[in-house]
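sry for the spam today, last one i promise. C-alpha cells for design, 76 residues
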C-alpha cells in the first residue's frame, strides 16, 4: 500500500506533465524557460526528485497557473 506522501507525489508529477502537455511544451522548453537542466525537470515529472520552494514558484509563474493546479489542494 502506498503512503499518502507517495500518492501526493504521484498527483504532482501527473499534474506537472499534464500542464506541460496542455501548453504544448516539451520538457526541454520548460527546462530552458526555468534555466535548469533538462534532466532536473524530467526527474520532477518522473517523481525521482522534487522541486524546492523557489523552483515551485518558478513553475507556477512560468506556466501561469496557481498552486492548486499542481497539487490538487482542494482534495486535501
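last one done:
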Amino acid at each position: 500500500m502506498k503512503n499518502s506522501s507517495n500518492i501526493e507525489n504521484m498527483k504532482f508529477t501527473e499534474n506537472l506533465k499534464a500542464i506541460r502537455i496542455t501548453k504544448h511544451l516539451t520538457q526541454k522548453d520548460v527546462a530552458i524557460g526555468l534555466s535548469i537542466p533538462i534532466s532536473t525537470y524530467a526527474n520532477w515529472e518522473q517523481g525521482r526528485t522534487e522541486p524546492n520552494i523557489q523552483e515551485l514558484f518558478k513553475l507556477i509563474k512560468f506556466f501561469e497557473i496557481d498552486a492548486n493546479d499542481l497539487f490538487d489542494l482542494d482534495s486535501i
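The domain at 4-75 is CATH 1.10.260.40 (434 Repressor (Amino-terminal Domain)). ok im logging off now
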